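Input record (one chain):
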Amino acid sequence: MLSLSMKLLRAGDRSIFQMMKGCLGRIAITSTVLVIASCGDKEKVAKEGEREKALVITAIPDEKVSDQEVNYKALQEYLAKELNIKVKFLISSSYPAAVERFKNGEVHLVWFGGYTGVQARSAVPGSRAIAQGDVDPKYKSYIIANKDTGLTKSDEFPSGIKNLVFSFGSKSSTSGRLMPTYFILKETGMMPDKFFTKPLQFQTVGGHDATARAVAGGSVNVGVLSYKKYDSMVADGEIKAEDAPIIWETPYYADYNLTVHPTLEEMFGEGFIDKLQKVLVDCTDEDVLKAFNRDDLIPASNSEFEGIAEVAKELGMMR
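The corresponding structure, as predicted from the sequence alone:
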């Protein structure tokens, strides 16, 4: 068998030099094309990255998930106009999902509860709580009961509920689980799973509205939820107060907040988060504020939720 060198020597009328020259020429042309294509691809990717640069919002689902996108549309439009940026909204189907998305940098501005906000910020160094509703520094929960229980409102903790079927909201809810657990412990000296004689229930689909409907409909005897959601559902005629009367109110605690991811400073420039905070706090548009079920937004800071973190640690619900 002829060696490769002999094959090259006998390749038609062309010399090795001519063959090599032709090959080198083709390689040079191909390399040039690849370089140009590579540059073009980089420019294309850069343009696509610029085009896709957007502030992404989500929220814990403390109401029907199907309503989220509609309720947050006005907020998207407001922020896009005021900050001259692209704004998107992504639905989060559960409290943990909203926290995970924030941890992964998939979302940048989240309407968290006090507990989920603490979880998210502890996992993302540099993240900040920047705004809260005017009512959120002094929030509370309602314990409500089905009308057939015959229970009525009292300033004293209703210890008689221990033999009834009791429902919390989501396991990650501040007003529907964390703080009520803390107050039940303080009032009875026992954790809820020890105090109640029947297995505890948790609302796994929906938010505080699901708890209210479960109690009003009689599928559970007693439940605990956000006072704001209960009040708005009664005002809107979604439930009747007489079907699920309030029997006890918890003491106050800090709750909901808007928390931002630090990557916003990289995306939109230094000082952007402060601008975002000002735009939110200055907002007077009722349609925008409706997303949070609040009349006004005020500044917030991480330090305001240290009490929530301490409660979570005390209850063994946070490291």
